[in-house]
Amino acid sequence: MLVGYARTSTIEQAAGLDAQRRDLAAWGCEEVFEEQVSSVQRREELEKALKFVRKGDTLVVTKLDRLARSVPDLVKIMAKLEEKGASLRILAMNLDTDTPTGRLLINLIGSIAQFEREIMLERQREGIAKAKDEGKYKGRAKTARAKSEYVLALHRGGKRASEIAKEAGIGRASVYRILQERKGG
Questions:
Q1: So where are the chain's domains?
Q2: Which has the least CB within 10 A, 76, 83, 89, 95?
Q3: Nearest-CA neighbor of 2 among 40, 43, 44, 32?
Q4: CATH class for domain 2-115?
Q5: Are the C-beta atoms of residues 40 and 69 closer than 8 Å to each other?
Q6: How wide is the angle at C-alpha 44 spanned by C-alphas 37 and 117, nearest 5°?
Q7: Angle ∠(67,101,80) on CA atoms, nearest 5
Q8: Are 59 and 66 in contact (CB under 8 A)?
Q9: C-alpha span between 73 and 78 (Å, rounded)
Q10: Which residues are annotated as catalytic?
Q11: Which positions ≥6 away from 91 have C-beta within 8 Å?
C-alpha cells in the first residue's frame, strides 16, 4: 500500500499543501496523512503515518524537507520504516529506499540538506547581527507582555497560572513573569 504524508509549516501555505495532496493522489496513495505544523514541533500526523505503515508498504512524500528536519531525524524515521519492513519514496527526487542505491542516496542527500540548512542559519545569524549593529533589528515583538493587562485581570478573577496561560495563548513562564513584574513594580 502507498501511504502519503504531506506537511506545510504554516496555515498560510495552503497552496503548498494542496499541491502535495494532488501529487500524492496522482501517485496512487490510498491513505494520506497531512498536517500544517513546523518541522521542529511534534508532528502527530507523521507519527500516525509511521504507526499505520505495515510490511511491504511505502511511505510517499513529495520532497525530503516535508518529512525530515535533519539527518538524525531522517535516520530515526528510516529506522522506524525499516523496522516495519516498509520503504520510503520521495517523488521530487525519484528516490525509493527499497533499493540499495536508494538507501545510499537518501543518506547522502540528507547530509547535504542538513549542511545546506546549517549554512542558511549561519548566514541568517550573521545578517541579524549586522542589522543589530546598524540598529535596524529590533527582534520579535514581545507578545506576552502585550497581554499583561489581560493576564492580570484573569489573575484577579481567581484563575491559576496554567489556566491563564491557556486562555491568553502564552506560556506559563510568561504568566509568572508578568505577575512577578507587577509585584515588584
A1: 2-115, 143-184
A2: 83
A3: 32
A4: alpha beta
A5: yes
A6: 45
A7: 40
A8: no
A9: 9
A10: 9
A11: 23, 27, 60, 61, 62, 63
Residues in the chain: 185
CATH class of 143-184: mainly alpha
- What cell does 168 get? 491568553
- Residue entry with cell 491559576: 160
**Coil, strand or helix: which one is 171?**
coil
Amino acid at the residue 49: A
How far apart (Å, rounded) are the C-alpha atoms in residues 162 and 97? 45
| HSE value, Cβ hemisphere, 13 Å, CA-based, for 40 | 0
Task: Copy the grid coordinates of residue 67.
Answer: 518529512
Rg of the chain's alpha carbons, rounded to an integer?
Answer: 22
Give the model confidence (pLDDT) of 47-96 as tens digits: 999 999 999 999 999 998 899 877 788 888 998 999 999 999 999 989 99
CA distance 171 to 32: 33
What is the per-residue pLDDT across 145-162, written as a single tens digit (0 to 9) for each?
788 888 999 999 999 999
